[in-house]
Design brief:
Elements: H1 12-21, H2 28-44, H3 50-77, H4 83-87, E1 107-109, E2 119-124, H5 132-148, E3 153-158, H6 163-167, H7 190-201, H8 218-230, E4 234-239, E5 244-248, E6 257-258, E7 261-262, H9 273-279, E8 285-289, H10 299-316
Parallel strand pairs: 2-3, 2-4, 4-8
Antiparallel strand pairs: 1-3, 5-8, 6-7
Helix pairs in contact: 1-2, 2-3
Length: 334
């Protein structure tokens, strides 16, 4: 039966069916709106079409409430991110959420009038929930883009891919299902290689558990879908605490130094983002490993890191209408 169109049931009959069936995972505030809509439907269905409007409003209110709640929780967790940094940044989200129902926020900085962007850049923080600075630094860069976005690049910024991991009482690398998202991307021979790596190379380390199937997690699926839809010309992913730069992908000139961080190739792993997007899809992936997971770089170091990153992107990432490096020219695992 047709259940929802634009957030509401499509007919009086489907409204009855929907009310009888119900939906799990709503907030208390949303359920109040749902109950109001369903009660009105039962008692005044013939003359009053308002219940579907009440339901649509309740659903929309729940979406906004969930963003507000997430921003409050992030601000309580991270001293360097204020509630205003999150709630007033006009982040977007879609229907695909984390395991525990949190929205995965992103913000786009698009085309500026009379300037064609050189390339699309996807910037990601918080793949691992216990790497606090990877989240805080992206929020800091959102503030910079809010003020200085010039249109040189088209950006899509994801400050926190793994909200459940961050927001646990004791933050964890993995998501709420105990899966390392950076081992869950669909790379060749994933079923065999990921399990072998986890068992033999990590000794079944639960922090590196790849899951049972590739893209089994909503967060990794969200990112795979985003890459397919946004079609980035480069990906920048922040981690901590190794204090180096890593690079995967086409045979372009990787950054030798950004700020105080120097290039040190760490290799690729089954199911990693660098393996999936860089090695197998030909998208340059720069991994910035900040030197500390809990303490932000000093102001001048953070500023230099940002300026060097933008400079490297400007000089090395091929414009969208330029000649792209093919998969045959990719660098293999180092």
């Amino acid at each position: 039966m047709p259940l929802l169109r634009d957030g509401r049931p499509t007919s009086a009959q489907s409204m009855n069916d929907w009310c009888n069936k119900g939906i799990v995972g709503f907030t208390t505030a949303l359920w109040m709106g749902v109950l109001t809509a369903c009660y009105a439907t039962e008692h005044d269905q013939a003359e009053n079409p308002a219940p579907t409007d009440a339901l649509a409003a309740a659903i929309a209110n729940n979406a906004q409430t969930s963003v507000v709640d997430l921003c409050k929780r992030v601000a309580r967790k991270l001293a360097s991110v204020s509630y205003e940094d999150c709630a007033e940044a006009n982040f977007e989200h879609n229907e695909l959420r984390s395991v525990e129902g949190s929205p995965i926020l992103y913000k786009e900085y698009g085309v500026v009038e009379n300037r064609k962007p050189q390339a699309r850049i996807l910037l990601i923080g918080g793949i691992h929930g216990d790497e606090y600075t990877s989240v805080s630094m992206v929020f800091q860069w959102v503030r910079k883009l809010n003020e200085y976005h010039s249109g040189l690049f088209e950006w899509r910024v994801v400050p926190l891919l793994n909200p459940d991991g961050l927001l646990k009482s004791q933050s964890q690398r993995t998501n709420a299902n105990g899966v390392d998202l950076n081992r869950n991307f669909p790379t060749p021979n994933w079923d065999e290689l990921s399990q072998r790596h986890w068992v033999k190379d990590t000794g079944r380390n639960p922090r590196r558990y790849p899951g049972t199937t590739p893209v089994s997690e909503p967060e990794s699926k969200w990112l795979v879908d985003t890459i397919a839809q946004f079609k980035p010309d480069a990906i920048v992913s922040l981690h901590a605490p190794y204090g180096v730069l890593d690079f995967d992908g086409p045979r372009t000139s990787p950054p030798q130094r950004l700020g105080n961080l120097r290039l040190q190739l760490l290799g690729t792993y089954p199911g990693s983002l660098g393996n999936y997007a860089g090695v197998n899809n030909g998208i340059p992936v720069v991994t910035i490993e900040l030197p500390n997971a809990g303490t932000m770089p000093k102001g001048d170091q953070a500023a230099r890191l940002w300026m060097d990153l933008v400079g490297w992107l400007k000089n090395n990432i091929v414009p969208q209408d330029g000649q792209k490096v093919t998969a045959a020219d990719q660098a293999g695992p180092s």
